Amino acid sequence: MAPILELRNVSKTYSRGLISRASTTALDNLSLTLDASTPTIMTVAGESGSGKTTLAMLLLGFLEPSSGQIFYYGKDITKLDASDRTSFRRDVQAVFQDPFAVFNPFYPVDHLLTVPIQKFKLANTAAKTRSLMEEALNGVGLRAEDVLGRFPHQLSGGQRQRINVARALLLKPKVIVADEPVSMVDASLRATILESLRKLNREFGISILYITHDLTTAFHVANSIIVLYRGQVMEAGDIDTVIKNPQHPYTRLLIDSIPWPDLSRKWGDSEIKAREAEAGELLTGCKFYGRCPFAMEKCKQPPPLFRLSEHQAASCYIHDQHERISTDKLTELLPT
User: Fold this and answer.
1) Which tens digits make up the pLDDT trace of 198-207?
2) Which of 182, 214, 187, 184 has its CA nearest to residue 198?
3) Do the Cβ atoms of 173 and 89 come closer than 8 Å?
4) What is the reported pTM?
5) I need a surface site. Which of 32, 43, 148, 259 has the fewest CB within 10 A?
6) pLDDT tens readout for residues 151-162
7) Strands 41-45 and 67-72: what pairing?
8) What is the DSSP-derived secondary structure letter of residue 187?
9) Alpha helices in 120-271 (DSSP H)
10) CA-CA distance, 336 to 332, in Å (whole number)?
11) Which helix (H) or strand (E) is 295 found in, with range?
12) Strands, sheet with 5-16, edge to edge from the N-terminal-most edge strand
Protein backbone atom coordinates (compact mmCIF):
# COMPACT_ATOMS: atom_id res chain seq x y z
CA MET A 1 0.00 0.00 0.00
CA ALA A 2 1.14 3.53 -0.73
CA PRO A 3 2.28 5.61 2.29
CA ILE A 4 -0.35 7.79 3.89
CA LEU A 5 1.64 10.98 3.21
CA GLU A 6 4.49 11.54 0.80
CA LEU A 7 6.29 14.72 -0.23
CA ARG A 8 8.20 14.52 -3.49
CA ASN A 9 10.72 17.31 -4.11
CA VAL A 10 8.42 19.86 -2.51
CA SER A 11 9.37 23.55 -2.46
CA LYS A 12 7.38 26.53 -1.25
CA THR A 13 8.22 30.10 -2.24
CA TYR A 14 6.47 33.21 -0.97
CA SER A 15 6.45 36.31 -3.18
CA ARG A 16 5.99 39.89 -2.06
CA GLY A 17 5.89 43.32 -3.70
CA LEU A 18 3.98 44.53 -6.74
CA ILE A 19 6.57 46.48 -8.70
CA SER A 20 9.83 44.96 -7.55
CA ARG A 21 8.99 41.34 -6.96
CA ALA A 22 10.95 39.61 -4.23
CA SER A 23 10.61 36.06 -3.03
CA THR A 24 11.53 33.92 -0.05
CA THR A 25 12.00 30.18 -0.27
CA ALA A 26 10.47 28.73 2.89
CA LEU A 27 10.95 25.09 1.92
CA ASP A 28 13.48 23.85 -0.60
CA ASN A 29 13.21 20.50 -2.39
CA LEU A 30 12.10 18.32 0.53
CA SER A 31 11.14 14.68 0.10
CA LEU A 32 9.59 12.84 3.01
CA THR A 33 7.38 9.80 3.64
CA LEU A 34 5.05 8.89 6.51
CA ASP A 35 3.86 5.28 6.41
CA ALA A 36 0.75 4.44 8.45
CA SER A 37 1.89 0.81 8.80
CA THR A 38 4.89 1.85 10.93
CA PRO A 39 3.69 4.52 13.39
CA THR A 40 6.50 6.79 14.55
CA ILE A 41 7.20 10.14 16.18
CA MET A 42 9.31 12.31 13.90
CA THR A 43 10.65 15.70 14.94
CA VAL A 44 11.20 18.58 12.53
CA ALA A 45 13.43 21.08 14.33
CA GLY A 46 14.96 24.46 13.61
CA GLU A 47 14.88 28.08 14.66
CA SER A 48 12.21 30.58 13.62
CA GLY A 49 12.10 31.00 9.86
CA SER A 50 13.43 27.53 9.12
CA GLY A 51 10.28 26.41 7.30
CA LYS A 52 8.77 24.19 10.00
CA THR A 53 5.29 25.73 10.02
CA THR A 54 5.25 25.96 6.22
CA LEU A 55 5.88 22.21 6.15
CA ALA A 56 2.98 21.66 8.56
CA MET A 57 0.61 23.79 6.46
CA LEU A 58 1.61 21.88 3.31
CA LEU A 59 1.06 18.49 4.94
CA LEU A 60 -2.36 19.57 6.19
CA GLY A 61 -3.35 20.79 2.73
CA PHE A 62 -3.70 24.42 3.82
CA LEU A 63 -1.01 25.51 1.35
CA GLU A 64 -0.13 24.27 -2.11
CA PRO A 65 3.53 23.67 -3.00
CA SER A 66 5.25 25.98 -5.47
CA SER A 67 6.85 22.89 -7.00
CA GLY A 68 6.77 19.18 -6.30
CA GLN A 69 3.80 17.12 -5.15
CA ILE A 70 2.22 15.88 -1.92
CA PHE A 71 0.43 12.53 -2.01
CA TYR A 72 -2.19 10.95 0.24
CA TYR A 73 -2.20 7.19 -0.32
CA GLY A 74 -0.66 7.80 -3.75
CA LYS A 75 -3.10 10.56 -4.79
CA ASP A 76 -2.08 14.19 -5.23
CA ILE A 77 -3.83 16.06 -2.40
CA THR A 78 -4.57 19.02 -4.67
CA LYS A 79 -6.65 16.73 -6.91
CA LEU A 80 -8.61 14.68 -4.38
CA ASP A 81 -12.32 14.14 -5.00
CA ALA A 82 -14.86 14.94 -2.30
CA SER A 83 -14.79 11.46 -0.75
CA ASP A 84 -10.98 11.25 -0.62
CA ARG A 85 -10.72 14.79 0.73
CA THR A 86 -13.08 13.88 3.60
CA SER A 87 -10.93 10.83 4.35
CA PHE A 88 -7.80 12.98 4.20
CA ARG A 89 -9.27 15.52 6.62
CA ARG A 90 -10.11 12.72 9.03
CA ASP A 91 -6.82 10.83 8.76
CA VAL A 92 -4.48 13.85 9.03
CA GLN A 93 -5.18 15.99 12.08
CA ALA A 94 -3.46 19.01 13.62
CA VAL A 95 -2.53 20.22 17.08
CA PHE A 96 -1.53 23.87 16.90
CA GLN A 97 0.72 26.05 19.00
CA ASP A 98 -1.84 28.29 20.71
CA PRO A 99 -4.28 26.19 22.79
CA PHE A 100 -6.64 29.16 23.24
CA ALA A 101 -6.94 30.24 19.61
CA VAL A 102 -8.73 27.04 18.52
CA PHE A 103 -11.65 27.66 20.92
CA ASN A 104 -14.62 29.93 20.39
CA PRO A 105 -14.79 31.88 23.68
CA PHE A 106 -18.60 32.13 23.40
CA TYR A 107 -19.10 28.35 23.53
CA PRO A 108 -18.23 25.82 26.23
CA VAL A 109 -15.33 23.55 25.36
CA ASP A 110 -17.81 20.80 24.42
CA HIS A 111 -18.27 22.66 21.12
CA LEU A 112 -14.73 21.82 19.97
CA LEU A 113 -15.50 18.13 20.41
CA THR A 114 -19.07 17.97 19.13
CA VAL A 115 -18.33 19.71 15.80
CA PRO A 116 -16.09 16.92 14.40
CA ILE A 117 -18.50 14.29 15.73
CA GLN A 118 -21.34 15.92 13.79
CA LYS A 119 -19.30 16.75 10.69
CA PHE A 120 -17.97 13.21 10.26
CA LYS A 121 -21.21 11.57 11.48
CA LEU A 122 -19.50 9.62 14.26
CA ALA A 123 -22.62 9.38 16.46
CA ASN A 124 -26.38 9.47 15.96
CA THR A 125 -27.47 9.92 19.57
CA ALA A 126 -26.58 12.28 22.40
CA ALA A 127 -25.51 9.33 24.54
CA LYS A 128 -23.09 8.09 21.88
CA THR A 129 -21.72 11.61 21.43
CA ARG A 130 -21.09 11.87 25.16
CA SER A 131 -19.43 8.46 25.21
CA LEU A 132 -17.04 9.39 22.38
CA MET A 133 -16.12 12.65 24.10
CA GLU A 134 -15.42 10.91 27.40
CA GLU A 135 -13.30 8.26 25.66
CA ALA A 136 -11.20 10.89 23.87
CA LEU A 137 -10.73 12.95 27.03
CA ASN A 138 -9.71 9.87 29.01
CA GLY A 139 -7.18 9.14 26.28
CA VAL A 140 -5.33 12.36 27.10
CA GLY A 141 -5.63 12.11 30.86
CA LEU A 142 -8.69 14.32 31.45
CA ARG A 143 -11.97 13.55 33.20
CA ALA A 144 -15.11 14.66 31.38
CA GLU A 145 -16.70 15.97 34.58
CA ASP A 146 -13.72 18.31 35.10
CA VAL A 147 -13.85 20.05 31.74
CA LEU A 148 -17.13 19.58 29.87
CA GLY A 149 -19.58 22.43 30.28
CA ARG A 150 -16.84 24.91 31.10
CA PHE A 151 -15.67 27.81 28.96
CA PRO A 152 -12.10 28.05 27.60
CA HIS A 153 -11.07 30.83 30.00
CA GLN A 154 -12.05 28.62 32.93
CA LEU A 155 -9.43 26.01 32.05
CA SER A 156 -5.65 26.02 32.27
CA GLY A 157 -3.47 26.17 29.16
CA GLY A 158 -2.52 22.53 29.67
CA GLN A 159 -6.15 21.46 29.88
CA ARG A 160 -7.02 23.42 26.74
CA GLN A 161 -4.15 21.87 24.81
CA ARG A 162 -5.06 18.36 25.92
CA ILE A 163 -8.66 18.98 24.81
CA ASN A 164 -7.22 20.00 21.45
CA VAL A 165 -5.33 16.69 21.34
CA ALA A 166 -8.54 14.88 22.34
CA ARG A 167 -10.37 16.58 19.47
CA ALA A 168 -7.82 15.10 17.07
CA LEU A 169 -8.05 11.68 18.76
CA LEU A 170 -11.85 11.60 18.30
CA LEU A 171 -11.40 11.02 14.58
CA LYS A 172 -8.93 8.15 15.08
CA PRO A 173 -6.45 9.71 12.64
CA LYS A 174 -3.41 8.05 11.12
CA VAL A 175 -1.19 11.15 11.47
CA ILE A 176 -1.15 14.13 13.83
CA VAL A 177 0.85 17.20 12.82
CA ALA A 178 1.77 18.86 16.12
CA ASP A 179 3.16 22.36 15.53
CA GLU A 180 4.94 23.61 18.68
CA PRO A 181 2.24 22.02 20.90
CA VAL A 182 3.94 22.81 24.23
CA SER A 183 5.59 26.17 23.56
CA MET A 184 2.74 28.19 25.09
CA VAL A 185 2.04 26.13 28.21
CA ASP A 186 3.78 26.11 31.57
CA ALA A 187 6.90 23.99 31.88
CA SER A 188 5.16 21.87 34.52
CA LEU A 189 2.50 20.85 31.98
CA ARG A 190 4.77 20.09 29.04
CA ALA A 191 5.62 16.60 30.21
CA THR A 192 1.90 15.77 30.55
CA ILE A 193 1.11 16.90 27.00
CA LEU A 194 4.16 15.18 25.54
CA GLU A 195 3.22 11.97 27.33
CA SER A 196 -0.26 12.29 25.81
CA LEU A 197 1.33 12.41 22.35
CA ARG A 198 3.51 9.40 23.13
CA LYS A 199 0.42 7.53 24.33
CA LEU A 200 -1.38 8.27 21.05
CA ASN A 201 1.57 6.81 19.17
CA ARG A 202 2.05 3.83 21.45
CA GLU A 203 -1.54 2.79 22.17
CA PHE A 204 -3.46 4.06 19.15
CA GLY A 205 -0.83 3.58 16.41
CA ILE A 206 -0.85 7.25 15.36
CA SER A 207 2.22 8.76 13.73
CA ILE A 208 3.20 12.15 15.13
CA LEU A 209 5.06 14.82 13.21
CA TYR A 210 6.37 16.89 16.10
CA ILE A 211 7.44 20.37 14.99
CA THR A 212 9.55 22.32 17.46
CA HIS A 213 12.50 24.60 18.09
CA ASP A 214 13.04 22.92 21.47
CA LEU A 215 15.54 20.08 21.12
CA THR A 216 15.19 19.07 24.76
CA THR A 217 11.54 18.05 24.34
CA ALA A 218 12.30 16.54 20.92
CA PHE A 219 14.95 14.30 22.49
CA HIS A 220 12.47 12.89 25.01
CA VAL A 221 9.53 12.34 22.68
CA ALA A 222 10.78 11.47 19.18
CA ASN A 223 12.32 8.50 17.38
CA SER A 224 13.91 10.51 14.57
CA ILE A 225 14.73 14.11 13.68
CA ILE A 226 15.07 16.37 10.66
CA VAL A 227 16.93 19.64 11.24
CA LEU A 228 15.85 22.44 8.90
CA TYR A 229 17.57 25.75 8.25
CA ARG A 230 15.89 28.26 5.94
CA GLY A 231 13.97 25.51 4.20
CA GLN A 232 16.81 23.06 3.65
CA VAL A 233 17.67 19.84 5.47
CA MET A 234 20.89 20.32 7.41
CA GLU A 235 20.95 17.00 9.24
CA ALA A 236 18.66 14.03 9.77
CA GLY A 237 18.60 10.68 11.46
CA ASP A 238 18.04 8.82 14.71
CA ILE A 239 17.21 11.31 17.49
CA ASP A 240 19.70 9.83 19.96
CA THR A 241 22.56 9.88 17.46
CA VAL A 242 21.92 13.38 16.13
CA ILE A 243 21.47 15.03 19.53
CA LYS A 244 24.41 13.28 21.20
CA ASN A 245 26.77 13.42 18.20
CA PRO A 246 25.69 16.27 15.86
CA GLN A 247 27.65 16.46 12.63
CA HIS A 248 26.40 19.66 10.98
CA PRO A 249 27.67 23.03 12.28
CA TYR A 250 24.09 24.31 12.52
CA THR A 251 22.93 21.32 14.59
CA ARG A 252 25.92 21.82 16.88
CA LEU A 253 24.95 25.47 17.29
CA LEU A 254 21.37 24.54 18.20
CA ILE A 255 22.49 21.97 20.74
CA ASP A 256 25.11 24.30 22.20
CA SER A 257 22.35 26.84 22.89
CA ILE A 258 20.66 24.43 25.34
CA PRO A 259 21.32 25.37 28.99
CA TRP A 260 22.65 22.27 30.77
CA PRO A 261 22.28 21.54 34.51
CA ASP A 262 26.05 21.52 34.88
CA LEU A 263 27.73 24.65 36.26
CA SER A 264 31.14 23.54 34.97
CA ARG A 265 29.86 23.35 31.40
CA LYS A 266 30.03 26.63 29.53
CA TRP A 267 26.81 27.70 27.84
CA GLY A 268 27.26 28.87 24.25
CA ASP A 269 30.75 27.69 23.31
CA SER A 270 29.96 27.92 19.60
CA GLU A 271 30.16 31.28 17.92
CA ILE A 272 26.76 32.52 16.76
CA LYS A 273 27.12 35.05 13.99
CA ALA A 274 24.51 37.78 13.68
CA ARG A 275 21.79 37.12 11.14
CA GLU A 276 22.78 40.38 9.44
CA ALA A 277 25.71 38.44 8.05
CA GLU A 278 23.21 36.76 5.75
CA ALA A 279 22.49 40.04 3.93
CA GLY A 280 25.32 39.24 1.55
CA GLU A 281 24.39 35.56 1.31
CA LEU A 282 24.83 33.49 -1.80
CA LEU A 283 21.84 33.11 -4.07
CA THR A 284 22.98 29.52 -4.53
CA GLY A 285 25.01 27.30 -2.29
CA CYS A 286 24.70 26.36 1.35
CA LYS A 287 22.02 28.36 3.18
CA PHE A 288 24.16 28.34 6.33
CA TYR A 289 27.21 29.81 4.54
CA GLY A 290 26.88 33.28 6.09
CA ARG A 291 26.97 31.95 9.66
CA CYS A 292 29.17 28.88 9.36
CA PRO A 293 32.61 28.90 11.03
CA PHE A 294 33.78 26.23 8.55
CA ALA A 295 32.64 27.93 5.32
CA MET A 296 34.77 26.99 2.32
CA GLU A 297 34.90 27.98 -1.34
CA LYS A 298 33.11 24.79 -2.35
CA CYS A 299 30.17 25.80 -0.10
CA LYS A 300 29.16 28.25 -2.85
CA GLN A 301 27.64 25.18 -4.50
CA PRO A 302 24.66 23.51 -2.81
CA PRO A 303 25.93 20.64 -0.63
CA PRO A 304 24.23 17.26 -1.02
CA LEU A 305 23.31 14.96 1.84
CA PHE A 306 26.21 12.78 2.94
CA ARG A 307 25.37 9.50 4.63
CA LEU A 308 27.46 9.28 7.80
CA SER A 309 25.99 6.07 9.24
CA GLU A 310 22.94 3.87 8.89
CA HIS A 311 20.74 6.44 10.63
CA GLN A 312 22.48 9.79 10.18
CA ALA A 313 23.18 12.17 7.31
CA ALA A 314 24.34 15.78 7.08
CA SER A 315 24.31 18.31 4.28
CA CYS A 316 27.84 19.71 4.71
CA TYR A 317 31.06 19.48 2.68
CA ILE A 318 33.13 18.71 5.76
CA HIS A 319 31.77 15.18 5.25
CA ASP A 320 32.44 14.93 1.51
CA GLN A 321 34.45 11.73 1.99
CA HIS A 322 31.17 9.94 2.70
CA GLU A 323 28.57 8.57 0.30
CA ARG A 324 26.22 11.10 -1.25
CA ILE A 325 22.51 10.31 -1.13
CA SER A 326 19.60 11.94 -2.93
CA THR A 327 16.92 13.82 -1.03
CA ASP A 328 14.32 11.18 -1.86
CA LYS A 329 16.34 8.68 0.23
CA LEU A 330 15.99 10.81 3.34
CA THR A 331 13.19 8.78 4.92
CA GLU A 332 15.28 5.59 4.69
CA LEU A 333 17.62 7.11 7.28
CA LEU A 334 14.90 7.68 9.83
CA PRO A 335 14.18 4.84 12.30
CA THR A 336 10.58 4.09 13.24
Assistant:
1) 888 998 899 9
2) 182
3) no
4) 0.89
5) 259
6) 999 988 888 888
7) unpaired
8) H
9) 126-139, 144-147, 157-170, 187-204, 215-221, 239-244, 249-256
10) 10
11) none
12) 22-34, 5-16, 67-72, 75-76
